[in-house]
Amino acid sequence: MDYLYDGSFDGLLTCIYHNYYLEKADGIYVQELYQPALLIESYSVVTNEQLSSRVYKAIEDKLSDESLHHIYHAFLSKYVDRENIILKYLRLGFRMGPRIDSYHTHPDVQPLHKIARKVTTEVHRFLGLLRFTDNGSFLHARLAPDHNILCMLADHFAERLRNERWIIEDEKRNLAVIYDGMTRNRGSKQRHWYIICLDAPLVYPAQGCDPYQELWKLYFNRISIESRSNPKLQTQFVPLRYRGNLVEFEPLMNET
Amino acid sequence: MDTMTKLSVLTGAAKYDVSCASSGVSRGNMGKMGSTRECGICHAWSDDGRCISLLKVLLSNDCIYDCRYCVNRRSNDLPRASFTANEIADLTMQFYRRNYIEGLFLSSAVEKSPDYTMEKIIKVLTLLRKTHEFFGYIHVKVLPGADPVLVRQAGLLADRMSVNIEQPSEQSLRLMAPQKTLPMVYTPMAQVRDEIRLYKEDRKRLRHTPRYVPGGQSTQMIIGATSDSDLTILQTTSKLYETFGLKRVYYSAYVPVNQDSNLPALATAPPLLREHRLYQSDWLLRYYHFDVEEIVDPVHANLETEIDPKMSWALRHPEFFPLEINRASYEELLRVPGIGVKSAQRILRQRRLAAVSGDELKKLGVAYKRAQYFITCKGIYGGSQPFDPTKVRTILAPQPQATQLSLF
Ligand code: SF4
Asked: Which end of chain A is more exposed for a tag (fewer CB within 10 A), N or C?
């Protein structure tokens, strides 16, 4: 039996639940992307938050927070077989318990660690590589990440830019996080951001050139030591595919 | 002078300072803007492949001193500029909101006097912390010779402080920086060390004690401007870690900027490979339980350039190898070329479940190509050749140049 779900994390966990209490899953797939296989039946799973939270809790209790962290990051990855990697990992995990992450080289563990790490790395990278522009009414950032990492960025910026209004837009997936800039009560953990789907990229009237953007470009050029120039190393850290949204790689307005 | 020109001059003058780290402090946003992360965050990488984490500028390049190795020395004829405290605070805040930076690294030439400059630095910090309620990362330079009261004031506002030692020996410092002496460097270092301890102690008892330099202190040494050996450099390094509890010692390959008979000629390339080997040795001291004398000694006073210092040690100590991966202690594992801190920890974790085989080592992140000659797994020797230091050296040494690895 192949389980098909709506693409949400709760949906995936609901499938895992059914794998144990209904029928063993051959595979789990996002409904929209599913290509029916001969001889295997498929079943469209309705996401059920009660069931998913039981699985969530079971992972926390029987495995570990570390496992949960790995699983969630793997889920955010772009790989098409991520659900099945998670399924295999969990099947082993519920047998082995919290020791599972020590079994780094096991064929059901390593793939999960690997894709989870790719996502964690990209999240960390974008905490730095995200660039906001100030358009007069809010701060706006665009990115085209390999993985679906918006939700992992939101908390970080809601914390540090708590008095600002900002939007972070994933132009690959047409998603955006919106933060309304309301002052939070000190110490309260309440989030004020939400994720929306966009029909088209956001556009707003051009504001003319931002002087701080120019100052930053100048800074970026001046801080480099010519006799240590090493573009290969630079590319290793800032792959070309990310540079479209990095203002410092654009030429200065008035080259001085 | 407009901000654009000032920024251009005062960035160009600050770029030889290597540190750009924003790590070591974990703090939420308790004010209007900013937070810090334990691991630090890099925001950009410049053409030279160095990470940009902080806005690194000088408050002023108008120096009264005349250090021979420095672009800003008094005897150089170049454009001089000084930021106002407001200008720097404003740049920091505006760069920070756009997520260009993690915070500020503020340094300065000695403008008028050490105290005058230090007071101005404190003014910037006060503006940022109090007026703008900025909670991002701030690293400030302590000027040798500044009043201890000012040093303490700065420490209560900054995350990290550094006093640059600049040269690895007293003699070189005297030659290179005639107005500076080692005691001028060591006095504020000791003060910051003591005050870090004091405030930490107090904080245990009184929750409202302010934080004092929570990111610790660091320093920088210029490499290759003088004839000091790697032995001298590493001995000084080790002394700095032990005596002052420094978080980091940074090395800066000297980039010739001045014509001077006591300095390398202007066309000399900065000794990047040497700098790289020194950083590797520094890691061995801090994370691999090595002593300086194991890395360099009076007979081998300089690091080998073709192979890394750990490999160099291993080849000089064949009696230590091969090591059985499934029995070796953590410290022993760390001695194997190709095994790092992470992979050693993974080996320990995994072998509690089952003995580790050679194949699995690769999956655990071990650089097997190098490690194979030094280990056995379940009693089986890994190398394609029997362990013979001279042979292993010829196999491993002529690797493609590893001059530039990720250091910053
Ligand atoms: S005191 Fe600092 S800025 Fe002034 S000449 Fe010496 S190293 Fe350069």
From this structure: C
- CB of B63 within 6 A of ligand 1: the answer is yes
The answer to whether the beta carbons of residues A4 and A44 sit under 8 Å apart is yes
- Do A177 and A195 contact (CB within 8 A), yes or no? yes
Question: Would you call B8 and A218 a contact, using CB atoms and an 8 Å cutoff?
Answer: yes
pLDDT string in tens for chain A (256-residue length): 899 999 999 999 999 999 999 999 999 999 998 888 778 889 999 999 999 999 999 999 999 999 999 999 999 999 989 999 999 999 999 999 999 998 888 999 999 999 999 999 999 999 999 999 998 889 999 999 999 999 999 999 999 998 899 999 999 999 999 998 765 555 555 657 889 998 888 877 666 778 999 999 999 998 888 888 888 888 888 888 888 889 999 888 765 4
Cα–Cα distance between B223 and B255 in angstroms, integer? 9
- Confirm or reject: Cβ of B157 under 6 Å from ligand 1: no
Q: Does ligand 1 have an atom closer than 6 angstroms to the CB of B53?
A: no
Look at ligand 1, atom 6, and give the residue with the nearest C-alpha.
B67
Residue B223 backbone phi and psi in degrees, to 5: -110, 125
CATH code, residues B3-295: 3.20.20.70
Q: What's the pTM?
A: 0.90
- CATH 3.20.20.70 location in chain B: 3-295
Taking one residue from A and the other from B, the number of pairs with CB-CB distance under 8 angstroms is 158
